[in-house]
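Give me structure tokens for this 127-residue protein.
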Amino acid sequence: MPNITRLHHVQITVPSDRVDEARAFYLDLLGLTEIPKPDSLKARGGFWVLLAGQEIHISLEDGVNRAQTKAHIAYEVDDLDGWRALLAGKGIQTDGNAPIPGYDRFEFRDPFGNRVEFIAPLPENDH
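Here you go.
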């Protein structure tokens, strides 16, 4: 049987008229690194970022009610409280999630309605 070997990329979408705002959020605020898109896909717009060897494709899509979806990316972070404070300082509301053993986490919506989760492993003695 053939095997799935790894996750290649995740794709999220933003409205086509908000690409500059998306770059500011994902590159400047979250600190992700933009990587070049192949020439064959540049005409579609959007941009790609790289995080720890994994690609996130931020593409354009209009007419989507992102606020209704449970689909999301979960980013593992090293300072959950620091991120919560940084996001709150930017006016981004965070909400708690149902617990997962061994992890603390929260979620928020990016400025385009995409659901985002930040998750951090609990110290070994908290398991």
